[in-house]
Design a protein that fits this description.
This protein has 324 residues and is of the alpha/beta class. It has 3 domains: 32 residues, no CATH class; 57 residues, no CATH class; 191 residues, Nucleotidyltransferase, domain 5 (2-Layer Sandwich). Helices cover 42% and strands 14% of the residues. It has 14 helices and 8 strands. Strand 4 and strand 5 form a beta hairpin. Helix 5 packs across helix 6 and helix 7 packs parallel to helix 9. It starts with a helix and ends with a helix.
Length: 324
């Protein structure tokens, strides 16, 4: 356009003639972008029922309320189905637009920034308790609900002691942060190294920043190298044999109670060849750890009845029960 204007001024040729010479449509030459989004202007209301019009802001509030329900982690397609069940006349494209504008779109892939610190040695060498911790996630099938739950376990390498665990239908980095934070709060120790694999929960930027703020050094196993996290893999293999393969769970609460009992047996009575055929609690006691030790009381029918009314135990309850 600038060349045409200069040629028009210097040579005395009209703009129409120049456009004709270069076979350019006048509409393309004179077009000025408005800066507005292309296409039809997005609607501001959504039909509900026979003829009611609802503001999109109310629809976004409805979507937010749906996603805030426990264990609900829907994408835009399932949200569309749910809104239609509630009487909204809306398609999946509009639902996606509203969820994107409201920052409600479920991200399938967690993109991490920064360089990950991969392990240097395949086998962990720990010289004392609470020096090296390891964590991993195990699937636990809940038969009554016909879906998998996620079991996150945190173990001390030196004593082989299960320090804490969490069982949820959705396991994302906030649940991991909560569990580690509770453990860190109880012990107030420095210099912990935490080893884990490259699961989406563990590579999340928020988790890595939270661990750094707690003074915990996080290291990652190499891709497709479960042997580099062998202690926790062995523990979860034992859980598979002793619990998951032997029980049919009527609810996630029942699975939680069963795993808690098994971990209590694991810590207090199960002999481990790798630590001289002793129990983790024996090694823990022999080290004379100066940090207060929380003992575990066997479950009674009264406590089981009281806790059965809760949806899930908090992370602090997990820690107290196992006997950190």
């Amino acid at each position: 356009m600038m060349v045409a204007r200069q040629y028009e001024q210097t040579k005395g040729v009209t703009t129409r003639e120049l456009i004709k010479w270069v076979s350019l449509a006048p509409s393309s030459f004179y077009y000025k972008p408005s800066g507005n989004p292309k296409g039809i202007k997005p609607s501001t209301h959504t039909r509900h029922g026979p003829g009611e019009l609802v503001e999109n802001a109310r629809v976004v509030d409805q979507i937010t309320s749906l996603l805030n329900q426990e264990f609900v982690c829907y994408g835009y397609l399932k949200v569309t189905r749910e809104l239609r069940r509630q009487g909204y006349r809306i398609n999946h494209k509009k639902v996606y637009r509203l969820m994107k504008e409201g920052h409600l779109v479920y991200r399938r892939t967690i993109r991490t920034t920064g360089k990950r610190n991969f392990v240097k040695y395949r086998k962990i060498q720990a010289d004392r308790p609470l020096q090296y911790l390891t964590m991993d996630i195990k699937y636990v099938y809940i038969h009554a609900d016909r879906k998998q739950a996620y079991l996150l376990t945190l173990m001390d390498v030196y004593t082989r002691k299960v320090l804490a665990y969490a069982l949820h239908y959705s396991m994302r980095h906030p649940q991991v942060i909560a569990l580690v934070s509770q453990l860190r709060k109880d012990y107030q120790v420095e210099g912990i190294i935490l080893r884990n694999d490259n699961g989406s929960q563990f590579i999340a930027h928020n988790l890595r920043e939270a661990l750094k703020g707690m003074g915990i050094e996080q290291e990652f196993t190499h891709i497709a190298s479960p042997q580099e996290n062998g202690f926790i893999e062995s523990l979860h293999s034992q859980i598979q044999r002793e619990v998951i393969d032997r029980y049919i769970f009527d609810s996630i609460h029942e699975a939680d109670w069963t795993i808690a009992r098994d971990y209590h047996f694991y810590n207090t009575r199960r002999l481990h060849g790798g630590i001289g055929y002793k129990t983790p609690d024996q090694i823990w006691t022999e080290e004379n750890i100066s940090i207060p030790y929380k003992t575990t009381q066997p479950k009674t029918s009264e406590t089981e009845e009281n806790l059965s009314t809760t949806c899930l135990y908090s992370d602090s309850q997990f820690v107290q029960f196992i006997g950190v």
